[in-house]
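Our collaborator T.R. sent over the components below with a one-line note: 'Predict the complex.' Nothing else. No constraints on interfaces, no templates requested, no preferences about which chain binds where. So this is a plain run: every listed entity goes in together, and whatever single assembly comes back becomes the starting point for the next discussion.
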Amino acid sequence: MKQAKKKSLEEKGWRVGDVQEFLKLSREEAAYIEIKLTLSKNLQDYRKSKHLTQGDLARRIKSSQSRVAKMESGDPSVSIDLLVRSLFALGASKKILAGMLE
Amino acid sequence: MKQAKKKSLEEKGWRVGDVQEFLKLSREEAAYIEIKLTLSKNLQDYRKSKHLTQGDLARRIKSSQSRVAKMESGDPSVSIDLLVRSLFALGASKKILAGMLE
DNA sequence: TTACAATATGTCAATATTGACATATATTTA
DNA sequence: TAAATATATGTCAATATTGACATATTGTAA
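Returned assembly:
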């Protein structure tokens, strides 16, 4: 955007640059959420493939059934760290993790 | 381990099973730490390849230079979440992330 | 149906992670 | 060299994540 136009808009009260910033942020936010959902889904598949209940997995990682449920439902209160640690507890490796993201 | 042997050891005060549990935990812990270090190193390379200072990156992710330094040094106070969000802020994609873990 | 097992949802105190700050230590440039 | 710039390290109050709990809902076998 030309400086003159930018200045003109700013004089009218617009915060120029915010749209681009918004788009960039939402792109990054979307990528972040997508990763969490990918890990969530894979965790559930992985657990089921081992014929474990949420309670079983909870015991293994010293957590609770309700937290495992939140992990698998993509609850925003769950960190990537916890998802990754849970996958490792089920026997996944770094390579397997990489495969989940492809 | 045979049950008789196990019982005998337990009578002597040993917590049998702890060794296996310790090994399993350390295996998972090692994998978790390895992932963080991998992301740390890649973050630094990625940042440098874009000719940005730690301060520049800090501004982009609304954090501080000191936290970026901790991210790149593999400081245990840094979460995978923060590392991943930072990589996305530098333009990385899910696929690129996967490549880092291979 | 009715038990029973598994999963989902909401809450919260305890714990972990965070950005910010001060300041030390490189590293680069004039 | 010295000054400027970049990075490292320690601390801490604010915020986010956590396990635990209660309880609701869903699935499932008798």
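Summary for T.R.: Residues 53-55, 65-66, 68-70, 72-73, 75, 79 of chain B lie near DNA strand D (CB under 10 Å from a C1').
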